[in-house]
Amino acid sequence: MTSLAPRVLCYSHDTFGLGHIRRTVSICEALTSHIPGAAALVLTGSSSMQALRTAPGIDFVKLPSVTKVADERYESKFLDMHVESIRAMREQIILSTASAFHPTTLIVDNVPLGMMGELRRTLEHLRRQWPRPHVILTMRDIVDEPGKVIEAWKRQGVHEALDRYYDDILVYGMPEVFDFVREYDLPARVADKVQYAGYIERGIDVAAAAEVRRRLAPHGHRLILVTVDGGGDGARLVDTYLRGVASTRPGTQHHLVVLGPDMPEADRQAVRQRYGVRRDVTLLDYCDHLTSCMAAADVVVAMGGYNTMCEILALRKPAVIVPRVAPRLEQWIRCSRMADLGLVRVVHPDDLTPSALWSAVHEALDGRAFQPLPLRFSGLRVVSDLVRNSHAMRTAIGA
Q1: Hey, is 171 helix, strand or coil?
Q2: Whether 57 and 188 share a structural domain
Q3: Percentage of the chain surpassing pLDDT 70?
Q4: What is the domain range of residue 358?
């Protein structure tokens, strides 16, 4: 890394699942591949980051893990410490890392002030620096139901923070699907910073997808992929799906079920004991080439997290989505909008039974698909261009 190369510090709070850290890693890979010499350092609380493969130029600083137990309520995940002590420790690690790394760009994922406000001191510190880093907030398309977000952001002073600390706000979505500025009633000064970057698309390994197909679905068999993100709350969906499978005799379908690294061990063992003996079922704890498995599948059954939805839609795969509806309605809102546009089929968790789920899966297998709406998958290009251009301007003025 030379003195002219951008140094990008990324913050990903990671209190549940794999969505935030997977999206952050995708951004870092795009930056380091498109900007010569760029280095990316990720601050993350994810307990599963060691399972993610990363490219050269990317490294991690691990924050003590917390887990979300209710909306805006957290607990220490591993350490026997009060969450306020964990928050103070994380806050200090973040500040110390930013002070030592001297980032030219800070990218904050989805939580403007960090988990429980742990990012505020670092944002203030960087604001006083000269030259000041370019500070970007990246948001997924939907945070939660609008009324709840508007009230919480007013209470937490988020609008003031967006105005004071951030240069740009990138929304990884499209206003035709969800108008972030209008739905969340952003004030004009903040709205002026918002750019709709389009959705995020991950590349696929064509050879890996072909190999999955060869191993699991030869001779024209159908392949159904079931994925539940990190798996922390995915056991019910997996069990419901496999109960449907258990009511049938093995035939011309194969079922690839990814349990996720965060599924509780008792749930994992119960699934394996009940269904692991079937020759038409493959159970994996984790899959580091999930997008390739998606590309190989005829139908995807999944929860409604942002990354999973992007991958399904980019691949134009028939999908049945059972979204999470607590503690946030984010997934339900996203899936409902996408279903209204004819892009996926949705089963509400309250209606989740083996027969309801299998009915939706069979509809997808039978090819009664909807006409896809053209979506823009330009998110990684837009963020790379923004970082490159801001760094070029910084270099030009000798900052």
Answers
A1: strand
A2: yes
A3: 95
A4: 206-365
Model confidence at 320: pLDDT above 70: yes
Distance CA 262, CA 234 (A): 9
Query: Interior CA angle at 321 toward 151 and 383, to 5°?
Result: 60
Distance, in Å, from the CA atom of 260 to the CA atom of 287, rounded to the nearest integer, reads 8
Q: Is residue 371 part of a domain?
A: no
For the stretch 45-76, pLDDT in tens is 987 776 666 789 999 999 999 988 777 789 99
What is the Cα–Cα distance from 263 to 260, expressed in whole angstroms?
Answer: 6
**Residue 40 C-beta-side C-alpha neighbours within 13 Å:** 27
- Domain identity same for 343 and 389: no
Do residues 318 and 171 share a domain? no
pLDDT in tens, 378-395: 999 999 999 999 988 878
Secondary structure class of 184 (helix, strand, coil): coil
Beta pairing, strands 66-70 & 39-44: unpaired
Do you know the residue count of the chain?
A: 399
Backbone angles phi, psi at 50, to 5 degrees: -70, -15
Which residue type is seen at 180? Answer: F
CATH number at residue 334: 3.40.50.2000
Say if residues 123 and 25 touch (Cβ distance below 8 Å): no
Pairing between β-strand 222-227 and β-strand 194-196 as defined by DSSP bridges: unpaired
Total domain count, the chain: 2
Q: How far apart are CA 311 and CA 17, in angstroms?
A: 16
Q: What angle do CA 243, 216, 269 make, to 5 degrees?
A: 40
pLDDT for the residue 1:
40
